[in-house]
Write a structure and sequence with these properties.
The protein is α+β, with helices and mostly antiparallel strands and about 375 residues long. About 35% of the residues lie in helices and about 45% in strands.
């Protein structure tokens, strides 16, 4: 590698380094600018968790009889209807929140007696009647973590059984009659930093078939509940103006440096190709090429441009005249010439960037 090639290689390395650094700075700066204007993502935030637990216990108290020693039977058993006196129900409902809150709540208890009849496979309600056992009660708890409802109910089973028997005897209809005890609980909870109230409803039921020799109690709605209440926090733009201004300045500086570096790198690459091609020609055909330091005088001669260097070699072989080599523009343009008394055969070697400029100028001339 001669001195010229070493110099070109060094320049190419430096340009690659500058181009890479400036491109990296430009990409990072543009990314920072876009990132400064980007919103933070929406986030789901836990407001509170509420839970409710229902403890419902009941006993069936019996009329005096000679079969049962105790005066009552525990829950979840079968009961002989004729000896039932009343049902004693104890309700303990607990509602809790994980944060201090304001809660307004209400509850009521009612007894519904109803008869269903099956006609041609279709079940329909024949009649029903509602009795209020506990009138609606409304209460409020402030800055608390919940509330508790405790209520004792005594259900006169004989009253509803007699009404069911009366309906059956009067109309002679064998319908499915039942007694349903409904406990309805409603609450609305509000907390600070949350602009919505949190409604919760609960219905607990106890169902006893009537007009049956043996009956039982079916309880529903006592399952424990646990629920998270969340809200969406909208993302915001938090612009770091110092970082933004720094990124804009870096972009303004690095953009032209990047452009110029890549442009010069392109030029150096073309020069490298030009030097390599020039070296190849001089090495391959050095015995028929004479390098001159003075520009050949072609005045008065007919100049014939040769497209390929091999064509110039063919002419040399035919005329037996040496090829003159002269570098017109350092690292950019070289002439290879064969002269006769009347003509000059010339092959011009140019770098790719120079050829591109010539091509662009020719196109402009055609457009004009």
């Amino acid at each position: 590698m001669n001195e010229k090639e070493k110099q070109v290689s060094l320049q190419k390395f430096l340009k690659i380094m500058w181009a890479s650094i400036s491109l990296l700075v430009l990409i990072i700066s543009i990314w920072i600018i876009f990132d400064c204007f980007k919103k933070t993502p929406d986030q789901e935030q836990l407001v509170l968790n509420y839970s409710s637990n229902t403890n419902l216990d009941y006993k069936i108290y019996l009329k005096p009889n000679k079969f049962y020693e105790r005066s009552y039977l525990d829950k979840d058993k079968k009961y002989i209807s004729n000896i039932i006196n009343y049902m004693d129900v104890n309700l303990n409902y607990i509602f809790n929140t994980t944060v201090l809150s304001d809660t307004s709540y209400s509850y009521n208890v009612s007894a519904v007696i109803s008869s269903d009849y099956d006609l041609n496979g279709v079940t329909a309600e024949l009649w029903s009647k509602t009795y209020q056992l506990v009138a609606p009660k409304s209460l409020t708890k402030t800055s608390s973590s919940g509330f508790q409802i405790k209520e004792n109910l005594k259900i006169d089973y004989g009253k509803y059984e007699a009404l069911a028997n009366s309906f059956k005897e009067e109309y002679g209809i064998s319908a499915d009659t039942k007694l349903t005890i409904l406990i309805n609980i409603r609450s609305n909870t509000s907390v600070s930093n949350y602009n919505k109230s949190i409604p919760v409803s609960k219905t607990i039921s106890l169902v006893m078939p009537l007009n049956k020799t043996v009956t039982d109690v079916t309880v529903s709605g006592t399952d424990a509940v646990s629920q998270n209440v969340t809200q969406i926090i909208k993302g915001e733009r938090h612009i770091n103006y110092v970082l933004l201004i720094g990124a804009i300045i870096a972009t303004i500086i690095s953009a032209p440096i990047c452009f110029i570096s890549f442009y010069k790198l392109f030029k150096i690459t073309n020069v490298s190709q030009y030097i390599a091609q020039q070296k190849k020609i001089l090495k391959s055909y050095g015995d028929v090429i004479a390098e001159v330091t003075t520009k050949p005088d072609l005045h008065g001669l007919k100049i014939i441009e040769v497209k390929e260097f091999e064509d110039l070699i063919n002419i040399e072989e035919e005329l037996r005249v040496p090829i003159l080599f002269y570098e017109l523009i350092q690292e950019s343009e070289s002439w290879f010439i064969i002269t006769t008394s009347t003509q000059a055969y010339r092959y011009i070697l140019k770098s790719q960037s120079d050829l591109q400029e010539v091509y662009n100028m020719n196109n402009k001339t055609k457009d004009i």
